Amino acid sequence: MNKVILIGRLTKDPELNFAAGSGTAVTRFSLAVTRPFKKDETDFINCIAFGKTGETIAQYLTKGRQLAVTGSIRTGSYDAKDGTKRYTTDVVVDSFEFIGSSNNGGAGRDQGSFNNNGYGSSNTGSDYSNPSGNFGGMNFEEDMTPVDDGDMPF
């Protein structure tokens, strides 16, 4: 499984470009992510977002803005102008969420999320309960087998 979840602040304004030929939006940005348990250590993670995700990031986010991203790690390489081989590691963004204001003390009222996974909008709410108790008319109690606590492996 290749899954990455990051929360950090943009180190500079995102750079939006369009791929030659296809015209697909390609946005590159870097997140400053503080390490847990290490007070003064920060990692700078290069990220790339394609299509509408990239366009939205470029349009609404600026340096210092706090952001949560989910995606996957992609590695690559290229030959530099001096003839040396350079290796890259990027997080390809699948979805993101505005989680705070910019570092300059903004209000942070514009929290929201964007999901570009092809399955519609994401549910960022924390209430996953079903108040009616009706799960499509299915009665799960008929399939339940009682289990004694002594039979549990933990």
TrEMBL record:
> By its UniProt entry, which NCBIfam families does this protein fall under?
ssb
Its name, as the record gives it, is Single-stranded DNA-binding protein
Q: Which UniProt keywords apply?
A: DNA-binding
| PROSITE patterns in UniProt | SSB
Ranges annotated as biased composition (Low complexity): 112-130
Report the record's Gene Ontology biological process terms: DNA replication
The molecular function terms of the Gene Ontology recorded here are: single-stranded DNA binding
Q: Which Gene3D superfamilies match?
A: Nucleic acid-binding proteins (2.40.50.140)
The root-end lineage is:
Bacteria, Bacillati, Bacillota, Clostridia, Eubacteriales
What GO CC annotations are associated with the protein?
A: nucleoid
Q: Which Pfam families match?
A: SSB
Oligomeric and partner information = Homotetramer.
Q: Which organism is it from?
A: Clostridium perfringens
Regions of biased composition (Acidic residues) lie at: 140-154
Region Disordered: start-end pairs: 104-154
DNA-binding among keywords: yes
From which domain of life does this come? Answer: Bacteria
